[in-house]
Every structure is written in C-alpha cells, then in structure tokens.
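Model: You mentioned two targets. I'll fold them one after the other.
Researcher: Yes, keep them separate.
Model: Target one:
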Amino acid sequence: MDRANVTRRGLQYDRRYMLVDDNNFFITQRVQPGMALFRTTIEGGKLIVYHKGNIAERFYLPLVPELSIITAMVNIWDDCCEAQYVSVEADKWFSKKLDFSCRLVYMPESTKRKVDSFYAIDNDITSFADDFHVLLIGEASLEDLNSRLEESLPMNRFRPNFVMKGGTPFDEDTIEQFSINGINFYGVKLCSRCVVTTTDQETGITAKEPLKTLATYRGLNNKVLFGQNVLCGGEGMIKIGDEIRVIKTKPTLL
C-alpha cells in the first residue's frame, strides 16, 4: 500500500479477517504454504481476494461486515477471542482454493484481544496478528542477508508492514521508540522467524533458505531473529516516503 491509516489496533483493516480450521484454530502459511498465492486489494470500499491460479475469479468482502449473531471462540496460538462467521459462500470459496476445509471469520470492534502484558505499552489491543501491530525491517538488513545467500530474496519473504530506508544493517534492532508523521511507535520485541520465510511468495514452494543462513549469525536462545515487532501508540495517516524519527534506542541483543 502507498498509505495506511494507523489505529490503536494496528493498521486499519489489517488482519481483521482470518481462516480457521474445523477446530477454530487459526490457519497460516506455516501449515498451508499455498496461502501465499492469495492476493488482496481494496477497491470501491470492498476487500477483493483472488488466487494467482485464476486472477479473474475474485471474491468480494466488505471492509467492515455487518454484525452477525453467529460467533465462535477462535484460537491464535494460546489466545482465545470471539470472532464472527462471515458466510457459507466464503467458506466454500477458500476451502476449494486451498483444497482444505476452513472457515472465514472476522474480528468485530467488540472483540478486544490484548497484547501480551509483558510487552504492552498502554493496555494495547491487537487484531488476528500473531501478537503485535507492525513489523519493521530495514532495507540494509535484507541487503546484508542477501550478500550471504547464493540467491537474493525479496523483502516479501519477511512480510513487514514498514520497510525502513537508510541506516546500517539491523538498525531496527535498537529502535525502542520512533515517530512517523507525529505518530509514536514502540519497538518492543525482535521478531522470531518461522518456516513462512522459506516459502516463495510467488509460487508457494518452500526451501531451506533464508533460515539456514540466518541461523549462523542471527540466532539467540534457539530462535532466529530478523525484524522488530512494533506497537502503535497513536492514530493518523502515514505514507511511503515519510521520515522515521528515532526518539529512543536500546542495546542490541545480537
């Protein structure tokens, strides 16, 4: 996106929809790498979803659906929160595309899923994200990684919300507080990377990199770290090209 509206729950519309399995447990590329082939766009007040295998077949969803009386408790990792079912049509469409039984749910405003209190800044709530609002990665960090790989990888392997230009590799590790367009953000936890980074976002095919190489120099306590998890401390509009103003730094863990 060229611009996004920041809210106290994260970026507007971000991860408010989610696929769940028959046990109402969240589904991601970790277990369904084919999800990488879904694409989304926002047009005319609608969220449009399509699959790379058939870009002409599009599924339309409201950005904010009407409240539904059909709800369920869904699980994201160890969290459990209330979501509303979207439609039978949505369930059929996604299940067919993935060849896997799943249901589509939405997080209404009434659901207040709390951020882990150990990292929360101000009683923060979040969406269906793993836990935090935003992932920040510097272009210099990816360039450093690519200098160590036989084949360079694009930034979308790491799916950050914010990409930072300038600085040196892994500057984002040390940013504790920064602002964009007068909105405060807080770097609260380095991001522990999983097998999703090994999935080619254009083909859905998995391999060993980049985790194999990252583990040689970005490992800590049996975790591979790349990028900084960030919480939003205000509201407003941000856009590509806005300046990142670093307010407070912290020591690096690596």
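Model: Target two:
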Amino acid sequence: MSSEPIYIVYDGECPFCSRYVRMLRLRKNFSNVVLLNARNPHPIVDRLRSLNIDLDQGMALVIGERVSHGEECIHQLALMSTSSGVFNRLTSWIFSSRTACKLLYPPMRASRNAVLRLLGRSKLTDSNLH
C-alpha cells in the first residue's frame, strides 16, 4: 500500500459514526489514516461536496483519486480492518459481504438520522457548512 493518506470522512456529531471510526483500529495496519469530521472545513470535504457526495447518506473513504461512499465505504473499511478485538472481527466478518452491506446500511443510516434528530443535532446538509 502506498504512503498516501487514507481519509475517512464522517459526521463528528453522530455518536455512531464517531465511535465506529475510532474503534476500527485501522492504524494498526495503516499509519496514514486520517479521520476527518465532515463538519470541519477541509479540502477533502470540499472535494466530496464538489463530487455531489451527500455525507448525510454515508461516510466516505478517500484514497488518492478513489472515493468509496456509504455501503461501499463500510465494505472497504471491513476489508482493511484488523482482526484485533471483538468489534473489529465482527464488523469485518459482517461487512466484508457486499450483500450484508446492502441490507444493513440503509437501517444504519436511518438510525443515524433518527439519533441526530433526538439529540437536536442538524444533518450536515442542514448546517451552514457549504
């Protein structure tokens, strides 16, 4: 793997997203992982918006010119994760299947949106981030 940064762009206001990216332990395999809160200004966040990638519909993985979003992002992260810890083994086992990603990602996204509403937090597209 090259030494170019691996960006994981997620909603820092979402408790699920924040915990998920911190628990992945990708840094054990890749020292170049950069976690980006999509609510903070950054050129990568701007790039995703210019590509019309809706980060309310899912987190994104950016490696060089390649962008994975939503269920594809979760699938790619599962393939990259370590097998250390129960969380990583379980998520890797489940989300290494594209079928599982397609079935599970929509309810996960709906849960995220519901939790943001319950916590009184705005969606990314509702905030003044553009």
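Researcher: Noted. Anything on target two?
Model: The chain is about 45% helix and 15% strand.
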